[in-house]
Amino acid sequence: MIMETPYWWEAAKPETCENDLPQSVVDVAVIGAGYTGLNGAITLAKSGKSVTVLDTELPGFGASSRNGGMVGNLLKPGIGGLIEDFGEERGIAIAKEAISSIDYTRQVIEQEQIDCDFSLNGRLYPAVLKKHLSSMAEESEKRARFLDAKEDILDHEQVKEDVGSALYVGGIRQYGTGGLHPAKYAKGLAKAAISAGAYLIAPCKALEITSTSSGFDIKTGKGILKAAEVLIATNGYGENLVPFLQKRIMPIGSTMIATEELDPDLVATLFPTNRVIADSRKMLSYYRPSPDGKRVLLGGRPSIFPAPAERQAANLKSRLTEIFPKLEKAAVDHVWSGYVAYGFDALPVIGTHKGLHFAMGYTGSGVAMSGYLGHKAAFQILGKTEGETAFDGLPFPDRFYYNGQPWFLPLAMIGYSIRDRLGF
Ligand SMILES: Cc1cc2nc3c(=O)[nH]c(=O)nc-3n(C[C@H](O)[C@H](O)[C@H](O)COP(=O)(O)OP(=O)(O)OC[C@H]3O[C@@H](n4cnc5c(N)ncnc54)[C@H](O)[C@@H]3O)c2cc1C
Question: Which of 171, 187, 206, 306 has the fewest CB atoms within 10 Å, i.e. the most exposed one?
């Protein structure tokens, strides 16, 4: 029987924080206890602010304890796209900050002594088609030129040094990126936030936020929380709490499976260098060994329309078998889903709206960026120059046809599937 909870929760299940609302006005209310909110809360509490963090469910319950744990530094538009959209100086500055988000993550993990299997072992981007490989190689060369990135462009044989699969024509090997155990990281952050003096209340949903003469009233099922400042850190789970954000952020589901325990020697032949992997398809698959080297985890979008968990697991399992035929008989014992968040420019955003601070929209690559922007947002609330970032003031467009329900997503996915099948 397949368990419909994240494999990661076996080692680090999110826990409740059954606290009452503070009676006095707090300096900052943080809405959302994922990586964004918890990193923001740590920075704020360490700066002497009184901080209350609310989460509808549990700390880390959202994407932060469900993700693939791949610590990456690439933004969706790529360095080429960033330079085209923002000019060379700003484009490079934005891309460099995404790279430094990994340094920030490493520092937090070290400072807070979070035991979360963090390793910067590099990442592989294997290409399914020659066409993919040449555009990936072009982008890699630009990263070398503009960002001094050290990467290897691999052919069909070389790519097998990192992945035990004959599926790929080549790939890009990246250094300085890697992986962690996402739920252990989330749990460690929650503990660090509490140690720093932040007050966590979960489950406790923010139902409505009203502006007052002295700050904000946040209505919850436990009463009203009064705060001078608010950080919205809800990413793909924000629903209609802040309509301005709801109109600009698309929640998009992503699903993962974990195999049963396998022979570690077999897993080592599939991942000879223990690198995390994300392939080049439009309907991409990302996969990795579990940190203990006993399982294989794979994620992606398993179906165009919603489907029962068992079917989603079967679809992802067939992708896994396509990559690794040796896993044909391996059973899947966990399947789970979560929401990532996309803005229409496919870039993370940080800013304020009507006095509310926000950071979100990590396009499925937020393990490092979310904590980094949560930390930056905290400095912005403190009015400190450390809060300045190249992400300040990026366009954050809405669309007349979008009001919080990405109804057009199945159409886009049909297009992507066709492109994958026809090899575009
Ligand atoms: C299946 C999956 C795989 C992924 N894989 C990777 C990966 O390998 N690498 C990578 O870099 N990124 C990955 N991501 C993305 C990454 O997990 C996210 O970008 C990151 O966790 C975002 O953190 P966050 O704190 O902003 O949001 P979340 O962790 O989603 O937290 C938001 C929180 O806000 C709370 N909330 C929402 N509304 C309210 C409210 N009204 N009141 C109180 N609380 C509220 C929610 O309960 C939730 O806990 C993946 C995501 C998913 C879902």
Answer: 306
Please report which helix (H) or strand (E) contains residue 83, including its range: helix 78-111
Q: Verify whether ligand 1 is closer than 6 Å to residue 289 (CB atom).
A: no
Q: Give the model confidence (pLDDT) of 155-185 as tens digits.
A: 999 999 999 999 999 999 999 999 999 999 9
pTM value > 0.90: yes
Q: Of 390, 348, 395, whose CA–CA distance to 367 is shortest?
A: 348
At 126, which amino acid appears?
Answer: P
Let me know: does 379 contact 406? Beta carbons within 8 Å.
Answer: no
Q: Are 167 and 280 a contacting pair, CB within 8 Å?
A: no
d(CA 223, CA 217): 10
Nearest CA to ligand 1 atom 33: 32
Is-contact 91 63, C-beta < 8 A?
no
CB within 8 Å of 113: residues ≥ 6 apart: 188
Q: What region, left, alpha or beta, does residue 184 occupy, with left being phi > 0 and alpha being psi -120 to 50 degrees?
A: alpha
Ligand 1 geometric centre to CA of 12 (Å) = 16
Find out whether the beta carbon of 254 lies less than 6 Å from any atom of ligand 1.
yes
Helical (H) or strand (E) element with 256: strand 250-259
Which structural domains are found in the chain, ordered by start?
Answer: 12-67+183-250+344-405 (3.50.50.60)
Q: What is the pLDDT of residues 242-300, one digit of tens each?
A: 999 999 999 999 999 999 999 999 999 999 999 999 999 988 999 999 999 999 999 99
Hey, which bits of 143-245 come out as E strands?
151-155, 170-174, 178-179, 199-201, 206-212, 215-220, 223-232
For 392-402, write each residue's pLDDT tens digit: 999 999 999 99
> Is residue 256 in contact with ligand 1, taking CB distance under 6 Å?
yes
Q: How many CB atoms lie within 10 A of CB 369?
A: 29
Three-state secondary-structure class, residue 415: helix
Contact 14, 183 (CB under 8 A): yes
> How many angstroms separate the alpha carbon of residue 210 from the centre of ligand 1?
24
